[in-house]
Amino acid sequence: MGMVEGLWKAGGMPLRDGLYRPDDTGLELYVEGPGAYHPDAGQPIPFRVGGPFEVAQAIEEHGVDEVDTCFESALPDGTGWMCGGGGGMGNTGHLARLDADRSLRWIAVMFHSNPFVKVHYEGMSAAFTNDWGNRLMLDLGSAVLG
Q1: pTM for the whole thing?
Q2: pLDDT value at position 100?
Q3: How many CB atoms lie within 10 A of CB 100?
Q4: Residue 49: alpha-carbon gap to chain centroid
């Protein structure tokens, strides 16, 4: 079992922006707020995926946080689940894609997103809403997030 999968099973996640997979690979994730005190609260949350980074080094340098799950929802196509929430720090948010057996496919950790509290699906597109009403739209069928 890899570090990311072990953390997830223990109720934890890395505490650095990134898209983490159970094989301990990671992609840079750029989420520029808006968080709790952002003047544009209630607006779409920008979300960009970048290049790979060293997961073990990220965990060593930034530590880990507890997973606080606010919702779990079956995917419309029946292939798995999405869950989301926050962490021990109030500004942190996470989204996790789980397979049908609830094993981890990926977890996206966003230090400045605030906790995600609900999801709404339109096909395989998902609109996630954080605790300040900000929305994050993702195409769950994309090559990166599939």
Answers
A1: 0.92
A2: 96
A3: 11
A4: 12
